[in-house]
Amino acid sequence: MARLALITRGDDAGSSMTANRAIREACKEGILRNVSVMVPCDALDDAADRLKDLDHVCFGLHATMNAEWSRVRWGAVSDHLPSLVLADGTFFQSVNALRDNQPRLDEAMVELQAQLDKGRAAGFAFAYADQHMGFGRAIDGFDEAFDQWCSKEGLLNYRPYHQRLPSVATEAGDPVEQVIAQLEAVGSGQWAIVGHPAYDTEEMHETGNENMSGEDIAKDRAWQRRWFTDGRILDYCKMNDVVPIRYDEAEKLY
Q1: CA dist 117 to 15, 112, 113, 153, 209, Å?
Q2: Phi and psi (nearest 5°) for 59?
Q3: Which CATH number, 3.30.1330.60, 3.20.20.370, 3.50.50.60, 3.40.50.150, labels domain 4-249?
Q4: H/E run at residue 234
Q5: Exposure of 239 by Cβ count < 10 A (0-12 exposed, 13-18 middle, 19+ buried)?
Q6: What is the per-residue pLDDT across 103-121, written as a single tens digit (0 to 9) for each?
C-alpha cells in the first residue's frame, strides 16, 4: 500500500481553451487523475474533444451555479430559473449573492440535471460530482438533495472521499515547494489536492474581478498547473511512495 494516496483534481475544464490545454498536459505528463468539468461554459466542446482520449482519468461534473469573473460570464443551461440567475441570465458572482437571492432548491435540482445531461451528451462519462465554489451552502436543503441525486445518477459524491491537504506554515519559496511541504507534513493516509491548471495567456487575462486581476489569476493558475507537472513534484511522489489516485479508486473517509 502506498504511504500516501493523493486524489489529484483539476477543476474548471470547459471554462476556457487555456484551461483545457493545461489540464491535458497535467494529465498526460503529470499526476492529474481527476478532471472536473464546467458544463455551462463556452469551451465545453473543446474540452470534450481535447480530453476524450484520457482513459486513465476520472471525469466529474463540476456543478456550477456561480460565475465569479466580471468580464467572462456564463449562465444556466435551463431556462426560467429566476432564483438562480441575474436578469441577463448569467449566474451570480459570489455564493453570498446567490444566497441573498433566496435560491430555490427545486430550481437548483432542475439545473443540476440539465448540466449533467448536457455534459453526458458532449461525451463525458462522469464518475463523480462536486460543486464549483461550494455553492450548495447557499441553498437550503441542497447537500442532502445533492447526495440523493448523486446516488440516483450513479455518481460518487466527492465529499466523503475528500480531505484536502492542510495549510502549512513554511518558508518554502514557491508554490511547488509549498505543496511538497504539505505532503511532508501529512506523512501518510488519503489526501486531496485541487488546482485550476492554466497557462499565462491573453485568454486568462480576460478573467478576474474586483478582488483579483486577470493577470494575477493567470499567473496563479499557471503555478497550479505546475502542482501536477513540475519535476520536483514528480520526483517527490516517486521517491516517497505518493500515489496519485482517482475518486473511483479512493476509500470513503466517513
Answers
A1: 18, 9, 6, 10, 30
A2: -100, 145
A3: 3.20.20.370
A4: helix 231-239
A5: exposed
A6: 999 999 999 999 999 999 9
